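Thread: "does anyone have the structure for this chain?"

Original post by V.I.:
We have the sequence but no experimental structure in hand. Need at least a predicted one for the grant figures.
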Amino acid sequence: MRMPCINLLALPCAGASAIMYLRWRNLLPEWIRVVPVELPGRGVRMDEPFAENFEHLVAQICEEQAALMRGPYALFGHSMGALLAYGIAQRQRASGRPLPSSLFVSACAAPSRRDPERFAGHDDETRLIADLRKHGGTPEDVFGSAELLQLALETLAADYRVCDSFRYIAQPLLPVPLHVLAGRGDDLTTGCIGAWRQETGGAFSLDWFDGGHFFIRPCERGVLAVIVRELVYRFPGARHAASCVA
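Reply from O.Q.:
Generated one for you, tokens below.
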């Protein structure tokens, strides 16, 4: 029996590119088509100017990925990517376009509980470097290369401006299943994480993992297992594939 296919649009965290999700193509079942979303200013889009406004970036992603969001699809985002995924889902709802089968948000405070000061220092290189080191998601080689470090800082600063431009406005509940993933060692409070429940009128789940902000790396298989676990319920014919994570 041929498995149903769903596009999993994966949005990167601040300072990162689509490459952070490339491994998933070989680790998830074939019926989940991983689509790492590349944002302007990095990777294959290096020559494009960075986006610096949340609403503009969400609108751009919705237009660029419109074809893939006409059929079955899900959204996954880590940190800033989670906020973008939420924004995309809300924009799709407001415009009457197809909604995701599931929304996965990782390492991100609920939109209503975001710290307004968290991204205010986007022009302070010392603070940006401290953030890179604190979260532990940057290879040490980057800190040893002035060129690589400058590129990383420019990307992170632009993404922080995107996050800083976000303004929470209470909207109708998303009529889609919402699944939250969080690290026990992250500095996000339980309340900030749990408040995601208030954004959905559908199913809700919260999975905790050992590790800090970038728990999705050491806990990669567990994260992918959650994605498969939830998506098989949207596609009954694929239930037996839940054990197929490599």
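V.I.: this helps a lot. The beta strands are 6-11, 32-36, 73-78, 103-106, 178-183, 204-209.
O.Q.: and The longest helix spans residues 146-164.
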